[in-house]
Design a protein that fits this description.
The complex is a heterodimer of chains A (515) and B (496). Chain A is mainly alpha-helical. Chain A has 21 helices and four strands. Chain A has a domain of 226 residues. In chain A, the strands form two sheets. Chain A has a two-stranded antiparallel sheet with strand order 1-2. In chain A, strands 3-4 form a two-stranded antiparallel ribbon. In chain A, helix 4 packs parallel to helix 11, helix 5 packs antiparallel against helix 7 and helix 14 packs antiparallel against helix 20. The N and C termini of chain A lie far apart (46 Å). Chain B is an all-alpha fold and 496 residues long. In chain B, strands 1-2 form a two-stranded antiparallel sheet. In chain B, helix 4 packs parallel to helix 14. The chains are: A mainly alpha (515), B mainly alpha (496). Chains A and B meet through helix 5, helix 6 and helix 7 of A and helix 17 and helix 18 of B.
Amino acid sequence: MDNILSWIIWIPIIGMVAIGFVPRGQQDLIKKIAAGTTGIQLLVAVLLWMTFDATDGSFQFMERAEWIPSLGIAYILGVDGLSLPMVALNALIAFLGVFVSWNIDRAVKGYFALFLLLDTGIMGVFLSLDFFLFYVFWEVMLLPMYFLIGMWGGPQREYAAIKFFLYTLFGSVLILIALLALYFACGKTFDMLLMMERAPFALDGVLWWGMSAIKVIWVLLFIGFAIKVPVFPFHTWLPLVHVEAPTAISVVLAGILLKLGVYGMLRINYTMLPDAVWWFAGAFAVLGMINVLWGAMCALAQKDLKKMVAYSSISHMGYLLLGMAAVIAGGAANGSNLMAAQAGINGAVFQMFNHGTISAMLFILVGVIYDQAHHRDIEGFGGLAAQMPVYTGIVALAFFAGLGLPGLSGFVSEAMCFIGAFPVFRTIVIISTIGILLNAAYFLWAFQRVFFGKLNEKYTELVDINQRELFTVVPLLVITIFLGIYPRPFLDMIKETMNVLIDQVVIVGGISGIF
Amino acid sequence: MSNLQSLSLYWPELILSGTILLAIIIDIFSESQQSKKVSNLVALGLMLTLIAVALTKHSPTTLFMDALAFDPFASFIKSIVIVATILIIVISRNSNEFEGYHTGEYYVLLAVMVFGMFLMASAIDLVMVYLSIEVVSIMSFILAGYLKENPRSNEASLKYVIYGAFSSGIMLYGLSIIFGLTGTTKFFEIKDAINALDGSANLALTLASVFVLAGFGYKISAVPFHFWTPDVYEGSPTPVTAYLSVAPKAAGFALMIRFFNQVFVDGASLSGMGWSSTVSFSWPQLLGIISVITMSMGNLIAIQQSSVKRMLAYSSIAHSGYMLMALPTISSEGVFATMIYLVMYLFMNLGAFFVLIYVVEKEGGETFEHFNGLGWRMPIVGFVMTIFMFSLTGLPPTVGFIGKFYLFAAVINAGPAFYWIAFFGALNTVVSLYYYMRVVKAMYFSGEPSDVIAVPSFSMTMIFLLLAIPSVFFGIYWVPVLGWVKDSLLLFSQVL
């Protein structure tokens, strides 16, 4: 049990090294090693979930080691109710991702080595409590992504890979500048716990070129993280990258990588610059609304099934931003409506998790049909329901989850985000609800065009979803249905941490408020 | 110290001079095919010099009647220069570019150049500044044109001579104005004399420092004194290009740091006590602007190159810009960051050039097309080149990131007045990603996995690993570098 977090982070690296020693030509062995390491990682993550003390909102399983003492850099890990669900989700998605990638036959060794490196990078971001370490993992994640998209992607893969890399690096360097500014303001430490204590007060009243330093740093961090989410107008890389990336990478991208941006905002913006949350919440809500509507309308216009799902991701992230904006409902100026603040923030984190499972499922399912038909043109199908009955049933459930049907997990979290944001941002929420309608429209319309009608003569050869593919989808489907009916276990897990977070914004942000 | 006393602290240079003389004599009496003997001798001499540099310990002082400084900072730069030179000697012996040429004097010229850079690293007298720059420049001219039968190499040499003569002429003019204003050639005396000047001398001082800057800027290839760089880098033999991009640059930065910190500043800055400029025009701002323009120009033009060698030439201009970032802060943090960057840059830039040398030899060209599919055909070469490219971009966990991290930290620590430099530095990092990744893209994305795998010779593999392993190791745990640089961050002016 000691160093359980280190194990979670570094287990994939062990697998990566092992893969490096596999002799040429033994592709199955490589895949088995990858499945084995991610499987062990998943078991450890489950163990972590079981032993996590949900009544404690602070960081648990802390690890601390010296790294570069003269610079105040240390190796600090810890997990709380915000990172725990993300760690569990990542472990699950990585494990399933290996099976989704089972058909990869080009440079197998490189693919799985990079996949495991990506896994380590993501885990590192979620678990590190040292800002420098956080940043290193954040960047390390980019390298495997670049290769995975560029080498195993679709026809425009090279363009997509460099576009992804340039976009995210642009965000990263802004984070780097903000990180350094916070480092010096907090008395030269990268320890996030110390920074959370000091940063809210350290920059009070400091002006840079007539602007409040807090606002400048907030905006730098926000842009850096917003590119990852992606928040309109930084979203243009996402559809392209999704379309070009191989299925498993799309799954990881939608399931986990998009959450990193939100995680960064909640972990860093909300705790280190809580007073600026008040200043920015309105913008959050508006951007959330734009994301919801813009994403949904773009999805409606797509001919490519995968692109449609990609835009639906953008739309779903909008709900989450609304939920995050709701935190200010807890302030005295807004009637100290703590219930709304809790609903919003818990809903946002729940939405992070649910979108992870649902979008992963959607991308896997798109991959299933693409593997057989070699295209994803919505208009090019038709009548598949008769040809692939099981597949049709699963897609129906996944689409329903995507459009937020009650009884499935997406509905619960979206409703919570709306309920939280409603008291403060009434008009914005009302307009955003149009998004629900649009969501239903494109999902159902696409479903109708692909599965109903006359069977296209070309596709009489298609076979139904196979065992391996079922194995990758069913766990996600079970989670979606279970949490849709009974979300308590999840919400209990994160509740205390969210209360700490709300306190940080409402109380600390309220005291140090300069606005 | 008097001349005779100085000799006891002058062992490294004495060993080096002895090596040079011996090498010339041996070269005369040996067959032209036996230049290996000369290169061995020079490498051995340089190693002894390095040991002497490490062993010659004394509290900071001046040598030869205040012409040279003896301080840890100078020793640091000297060590970097020697390490770079030894690596270049090794790679030159493994390169086929010199086939058919008598290479004995090539190694001698390298050693003479090292001597010149030693002087640059410790010069604290205007005459010595000029003299040392000229020694290095003239050796560089010959080295750039070493391939007598290759027109490109001749062109490179000629361009280099013209530019070199021009900029050193301007610098000399600047130096003479300073001498005219102050009546002395010694850095510290100049500083006191400048302090005593009244406002009427400002124009002359501004002109003089801009002129001097032209000389320094030429050595470190800062915009707008960079025009020689791409052509010379492209035409020169690749080992020489690699050398020019690292060693003279380190010496140039040393000279620049000394000049600006000892002549124009009241001396307290490096002890961390804040500083005040002794002249009225805001040269830190000027340096900042030059830094930003240098990195932007280098990066933007590098994007358009089709030759990897030329791309690396522009990239080295951009890196000069990065290193200049921290100089305007006039703080020990700034100098510290620049020194760290010089160490990190040594590994990654030499690494990239060495891979280029190898590719030119195996594939017969230096364009991006020659790198196509390289990662599949030569996995080791592709892998180390990828490390160097990531490192030059400045991505963790490589040394390039650590270097940039210290530069950004120094700039941001200096206060909001300098934030714009950091901002442009950050933007430039993103721009540079594009062209460094073009190499990676060519190596891995263009071309298919192949079953025929070429492994470089044992000695080449060792050289690659010697540069690639530190490029990653120091990116994860750079305390050793930190300790060395910290011990070396002591300029003579601080104990004055």
